[in-house]
């Protein structure tokens, strides 16, 4: 089965400062997660989380498309893969009998290999409504590849089982893309070198002479 075409991900940055509405809410005791971000905005090394989202079709058109949500954090990543709402759902009156869009069915976490566990990530399932362990297996592979903590929720029904290898392959590519985008947004602005400063000084002196 050929791989699905690449889809551009929607990227959202978490707020880095308080707006007036949030400040008013905090003054009345209605705490907001943005308040913590406002206090950490000036901390060296702090980077707000980024949310990357996309929806792609796997298998026949009768199946709902697969939705990916990837949240990149400092030293960890949170992944949710579930059923999206597509054209196939509209034909069934907005209800897909084989899949529930947006459900959060299971959750696993994995830690990358270390001196105590060389060569293999350590994983554990936190939420498991059934005996299958797709989330834990995917979390281990993601954590081993990207050398970071991985939270993974594969919330897909059994009708997607035969497509899981293709879905996971696409997930790895999307996580790599998300981590690269997050690293680029966190990179500090280049500082001018000595030659640039000399050129700038010469230009400023020339402008002063002209004036």
Please tell me about this protein's structure:
- Mean pLDDT is 75; it is low at 1-6, 14-31 and 87-98.
- A hairpin with a 3-residue loop joins strand 3 (66-72) and strand 4.
- This protein has 6 helices and 7 strands, in the order βααβββαββαβαα.
- The radius of gyration is 23 Å and the shape is elongated.
- The protein has a 7-stranded mixed β-sheet, covered by helices on one side.
- The protein has 211 residues and is of the alpha+beta class.
How would you spell out the order of helices and strands? Answer: EHHEEEHEEHEHH
How do the strands line up in the largest sheet?
Answer: 1-2-3-4-7-5-6
Sheet of most strands: 7 strands, mixed
Q: Can you give the helix content as a percent range?
A: 25-40%
**Which spans of ≥5 residues are poorly predicted at pLDDT below 50?**
1-6, 14-31, 87-98
β-strand percent reads: 15-25%
* Terminal Cα span: 70 Å
The radius of gyration computed from the alpha-carbon positions, rounded to a whole number of angstroms, is 23 Å
Average of pLDDT: 75
> Which class best fits the helix and strand makeup?
alpha+beta
With helices defined by DSSP (H or I, 4 residues minimum), what is the helix count? 6
Apparent shape: elongated
The tally of strands reads 7
């Amino acid at each position: 089965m050929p791989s699905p075409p690449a889809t551009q991900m929607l990227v959202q940055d978490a707020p880095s400062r308080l707006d007036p509405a949030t400040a008013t809410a905090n003054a009345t005791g209605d705490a907001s997660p943005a308040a913590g971000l406002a206090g950490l905005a000036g901390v060296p090394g702090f980077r707000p989380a980024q949310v990357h989202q996309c929806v792609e079709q796997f298998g026949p058109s009768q199946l709902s498309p697969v939705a990916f949500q990837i949240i990149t954090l400092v030293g960890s990543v949170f992944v949710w893969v579930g059923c999206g709402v597509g054209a196939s759902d509209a034909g069934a009156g907005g209800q897909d009998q084989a899949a529930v869009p947006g459900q959060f069915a299971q959750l696993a976490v994995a830690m990358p290999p270390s001196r105590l566990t060389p060569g293999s990530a350590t994983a554990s399932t936190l939420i498991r409504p059934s005996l299958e362990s797709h989330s834990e297996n995917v979390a281990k592979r993601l954590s081993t590849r990207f050398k970071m903590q991985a939270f993974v929720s594969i919330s897909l029904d059994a009708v997607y089982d035969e497509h899981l290898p293709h879905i996971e392959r696409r997930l790895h590519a999307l996580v790599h893309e998300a981590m690269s985008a997050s690293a680029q947004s966190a990179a500090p602005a280049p500082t001018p070198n000595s030659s640039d400063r000399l050129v700038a000084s010469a230009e400023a002196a020339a402008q002063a002479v002209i004036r």
